[in-house]
Amino acid sequence: MSNILALDTSTDACSVALSCNGEIKEDFRIIPRQHTQQLLPMIEAILADAGIAISALDAIAFGRGPGSFAGIRIATGVAQGLAYGADLPVLPISTLETLAVSAAEAEGADNIVAALDARMDEIYVASYRIENGLPVMELSEQVAAPSTFAVDAEGYLAVGSGWRYFEAMPESVKRAVQLSTETYYPSSKSMLVLALDAWAQGKGISPELALPVYLRDQVAWKKKDQQ
């Protein structure tokens, strides 16, 4: 059994999960603007509870984005620092794929459009079909204005904070999706599903090669800069 630590701080949620000897533990909290203070103590606590040292891990997975600019940097930096110190590989995992896994596990959906609020009246979005519990990308990750976003087929479950812009989306999108009544965040427990699969495929990389994915080129834009 692989021992993998997963962490995500890409949204208001801060989560840490551990797969250790076939058992999975998670600490999931909605703590806006507290990720920097809480992430390391959460990691230390979950490892201590499992009785495992970082050096005994096989890899560290983290939410590489898209999502909050500051949040992605926190997860990337902590994962890199811990991996450097323990001489471990890392597994960068898509937050949108993680969101799709969370929804698929909870609702049994086969087709999912995952969207996160990108601020500045835009969304980070991708669509997936679920095969054997894993997401297969159909619409690639992108940043888009809700009014111009489009999907090619119907029957999608729509999940994530980006759907707060539903009323601004084209009628074709409104017909194509069913809005989930649940609130989903990228969770590290769901990330472990992807991380364990990636690890089995030999996709672990050196910490220095782990890069965040912002999608938006100018991540520090302010709304006034677009006018």
From TrEMBL:
| NCBIfam families in UniProt | T6A_YeaZ (TIGR03725)
Recorded protein name is tRNA threonylcarbamoyladenosine biosynthesis protein TsaB
Similarity-based family: Belongs to the KAE1 / TsaD family. TsaB subfamily.
Record-linked CDD domains: ASKHA_NBD_TsaB
Q: Where is the Gcp-like domain?
A: 32-143
Tree of life domain: Bacteria
Q: Which PANTHER family match?
A: TRNA N6-ADENOSINE THREONYLCARBAMOYLTRANSFERASE, TRNA THREONYLCARBAMOYLADENOSINE BIOSYNTHESIS PROTEIN TSAB
Question: Which is an annotated GO molecular function term of this record?
Answer: tRNA N(6)-L-threonylcarbamoyladenine synthase activity
Q: Which gene encodes it?
A: tsaB
UniProtKB keywords: Acyltransferase, Transferase
Q: Which InterPro entries does this chain map to?
A: ATPase_NBD, Gcp-like_dom, T6A_TsaB
